[in-house]
Amino acid sequence: MFTAPIAELAPALASKRLSSVELTTALFDRIDALNPRLNAFLARDRKRALGAARAADARLAAGNASPLTGIPIAHKDVLMTAGWKTTCGSRMLENFVAPYSAFVVERLADAGMVLVGKTNMDEFAMGSSSETSYFGPVKNPWNVDYVPGGSSGGSSAAVAARLVPAATGTDTGGSIRQPAALSGVCGLKPTYGVCSRYGLIAFASSLDTPGPFAQTAEDCALLLNAMAGHDPRDSTSVDRPREDYARLLRAPGGAKPLAGVRIGLPKEYFGDGIDADVAAAVDAALGEFRKLGATTVEVTLPNLDLSVPVYYVIASAEASSNLARFDGVRYGHRAAKYDDLTDMYKKTRAEGFGAEVKRRILIGTYVLSHGYYDAYYLKAQQVRRLIAEGFQRAYQQCDLILGPTAPTAAFKLGAKTSDPVQMYLNDIFTVAGNLTGAPAISIPCGFDRNGLPIGLQLQGNHFRESVILNAAHRYQQATDWQRREPADIALETAR
Ligand code: GLN
């Protein structure tokens, strides 16, 4: 019961078959037993969580609970969480305690969710494997010799290992969807602007998007209902009427619940460079979608091959500007010994940032510098527009775009750390969603020859979250990939 999805836990809490205190206690026992192997959590606080659980039980008893009241959650350590250390996986913020909470953190607390702890991540969300954390790599619960994906790998691993039913992440170039795929859970990147960035420590402001991780698409819809909303403190937060993202999921399905849904298959997603097991699993999933009534149409996404270089120019440019604030004066780490102010800046930043963050700052500063701005940054912005126009043309022919989330299942720890370009290429299917701002989900759709999970990505046009979630939900009603749990973790629990 304790490891069930939110949609099963919520009625148990509501009917008092289960209390939030019991659930929270059981999950903390799992975390204590399993986290030393996974390194998914950077901070956790049982006492504080039990206080929140008692308050949630009182709210459940009083009858003014939300569907999320009493459900434990963990937040990626890039989200400001009042009174908690918020480190971004960096030495720079090793001892930084957040003075206020991010919008999405506040909203989930208001819904009555029980905060369990903060999850490990690539330093400043830069990475695809959760190996660049100053606090050591996160391990994949399916096989601890493999990476869980990144940068939100602590959150994806925590949900995969059933340490929490839900977690938050942020997706700048794939950091929710890719770790969801490699860890075998669901991860939703909403439309840019649907979830406020207030309190999200900025990596690349025009791309950063908070979103949920959970076991099922249905749970992601419940979480998004609480996380979405207008926030005047983020100037790019969209002001639109409240939406119930789970509404389509509740409609009676029948034998062909996806009748009328047109799925676009970009030929760019089914070419070379995709692992054979991944291609086979995606193909089998496509068969299920057809059985559910969806039709398919071949589409093309011109310039898609340019999305990785374009992303790494734009994201690095924005990062070099955003990370200028970490100067030893205002936040976090400051070098102990220095000669003058300039020397203090230099030593602080040399000590506080890891190699990948420095690489991004160097690239970003370079592409923004006089003489290179037009050749790189401006050019990248122009190609970003072309890529977005390609998607708009595709969406004239289809409602959803289907393909793999990542070209391979999880890779071994250390396999790509010495070759940044290989690491960046893992983002080939996810970065375009950030360049266009449109929503996408990754859901489990099978396993590779090593028994590692494979992710399926469903993308839709702006604000079509409910359509994406509904398609994912109908697929999950017809299959059971989302119910599979890592075997060694199950053994650990039985002991
Ligand atoms: N892997 C990508 C990067 O390293 C995306 C990271 C993210 O989405 N935060 O930049």
Key attributes of the depicted protein:
495 residues, alpha/beta, Amidase signature (AS) enzymes, 11-stranded mixed beta sheet, 17 helices, binds glutamine
Question: Quick gist of this model?
Answer:
The protein has helices at residues 6-14, 20-38, 46-62, 103-110, 153-160, 177-183, 217-227, 247-250, 276-291, 307-322, 341-352, 355-368, 373-394, 420-425, 431-436, 465-478, 487-494; strands spanning 41-44, 72-76, 114-119, 166-171, 186-189, 209-214, 262-266, 295-299, 400-404, 440-447, 453-460.
- Report the major sheet: 11 strands, mixed
| CATH architecture designation | Alpha-Beta Complex
CATH class: Alpha Beta
CATH superfamily: Amidase signature (AS) domain
Please indicate the count of domains.
1
Rg, Cα atoms, Å: 21 Å
The averaged pLDDT comes out at 96
Query: Would you give the CATH topology?
Result: Amidase signature (AS) enzymes
Measure the end-to-end span.
17 Å
Structural class: alpha/beta
Residue stretches low in confidence (pLDDT < 50, at least 5 long) are none
User: Strands across the major sheet, in which order?
Assistant: 1-3-2-4-6-5-10-11-9-7-8
Q: What is the helix/strand order?
A: HHEHEHEHEHEEHHEHEHHHHEHHEEHH
Give the overall form. globular
What is the beta-strand fraction?
A: 5-15%
Distinct small molecules bound, one entry per kind: glutamine
Q: How many strands appear in the DSSP assignment?
A: 11
Please give the count of helices.
Answer: 17
